[in-house]
Specification:
The protein has 348 residues and is of the alpha/beta class. The chain is 42% helix and 18% strand. The chain is built from ten helices and ten strands. The strands form two sheets. Strands 3-2-1-4-5 form a five-stranded mixed beta sheet, with helices on both faces. The longest helix has 29 residues. The protein is globular and about 65 Å long. It binds 5'-O-[(R)-(carboxyoxy)(hydroxy)phosphoryl]adenosine and zinc ion.
Length: 348
């Protein structure tokens, strides 16, 4: 049952291929349920927007019913709604915003539009005290859809200082996995294969890496992963004789390991570099790729070496797309009055 002085928040995230809904009591996550579309997208070899939207529509009311049942709450108990409105796949976003707007209209509940990337950043506030996040900080957000570096001078002062000039790192993981005949999403599969590589991690000094590191020296906070992707394609073609034979398990392990090292070395270095250049002592990580253990290990190593404090989401559950990050950002927006009071339809 609802406690009188606490705000109950209903949060929706449907920007890509996860139908996720969470209920919060202030900053405390009461329950979250997420319907994943991975099985379907494995058949289509990636996310097809129309397929994703249909799956969201099929799943969303079941997920909503689950979170209400598990928290023993009714829609009438909800004080605020938070919903992802951008960026994302339009047909997918529409499912979440339509359901959220309908509830807001019918029950006259205030609705707060949420930016997906900002929500990823705020996933770091989950299960933490507000004062545990120290400003100013530099945050690397790495996902399938984005690959950015943000400077955060204060809780509401978020400025993009770097981005990818082509693919995101998550997209590179997914495309490289596809080249090797692995399933979607590629990140978790590649990192698992890489872990079984016999070479000590990190690479022995002096040993030549298989793939290039793209530093973009002039635009130090920017990234590029398309050249790396092409280099992996050439290596796969070479080892399979242009598709005439299959890659062996050893090939897959070695390519996964070498590719992952090439990605994480650049990500970790640039995050720390931007912090040092700006005299900032705190670095943070967010987004699906932040579930990667090697990435966290490498940033931890570099941060320690440079006397920086490094934080990342307390659970991998909060790294991938999820409604908990939407709920916690909604909570802080309410707490700080960082929203326009609106009831009804949120526009995309
Ligand atoms: O944040 P997210 O769930 O969705 C987007 O906003 O895009 O991120 C999904 C991305 C996928 O590209 C997936 O391959 C990647 O995160 N990912 C990983 C790992 N787990 C998920 N990449 C590398 N290592 C992982 N362990
Ligand atoms: Zn995301």
């Amino acid at each position: 049952m609802k406690k009188e002085d606490k705000k109950i928040i209903l949060a929706f995230e449907t920007s890509c291929d996860d139908t996720s809904i969470a209920i919060f009591e202030d900053d405390k996550l009461l329950f979250m349920d997420t319907a994943s579309q991975i099985k379907i997208h494995n058949i289509t070899g990636g996310v097809v927007p129309e397929v994703a939207a249909r799956e969201h529509a099929n799943a969303i009311f079941g997920v909503l019913e689950n979170v209400l049942t598990e928290t023993n709450l009714k829609l009438e108990n909800i004080d605020y709604i938070g919903v992802t409105t951008s960026p994302g796949l339009l047909p997918s976003l529409l499912t979440g915003t339509t359901v959220a707007s309908t509830i807001s209209t019918v029950l006259q509940i205030p609705i707060i539009p949420i930016n997906h990337i900002q929500a990823h950043v705020f996933s770091n506030f989950l299960e933490r005290k507000e004062e545990d996040i120290k400003f100013p900080l530099i945050c690397l957000t790495v996902s399938g859809g984005h690959n950015d570096i943000y400077s955060m001078k204060d809780i509401w002062d978020l400025e993009k200082v770097g981005s990818t000039t082509d693919d995101s790192s998550g997209e590179a993981f997914d495309k490289v996995a596809k080249m090797m005949g692995l399933e979607y999403p590629g990140g978790p599969i590649i990192s698992k294969l890489a872990e079984s590589h016999p070479q000590p991690i990190p690479c022995k000094e002096g040993s030549k890496p298989l793939f290039p590191r793209v530093w973009l020296v002039k635009k130090e906070a920017d990234f590029s992963f398309s050249g790396l992707k092409s280099a992996v394609k050439r290596e796969v073609d070479k080892r399979t004789n242009r598709g005439e034979k299959e890659l062996t398990l050893e090939d897959k392990i070695e390519i996964s390991y070498e590719f992952q090292e090439a990605v994480i070395e650049v990500l970790a270095y640039k995050l720390v570099q931007v912090a040092l250049q700006n005299g900032v002592k705190n670095v943070m990580l967010a987004g699906g790729v932040s579930a990667n253990n090697r990435l966290k290990e490498e940033i931890t190593r570099l941060a320690k070496k440079n006397n920086l404090e490094f934080i990342f989401p307390v659970s991998n559950l909060y790294c991938m797309d999820n409604a908990a990050m939407v709920g916690i950002l909604t909570y802080y927006k309410i707490k700080y009055g960082e929203f326009e009071k609106k009831i009804g339809v949120v526009k995309l």
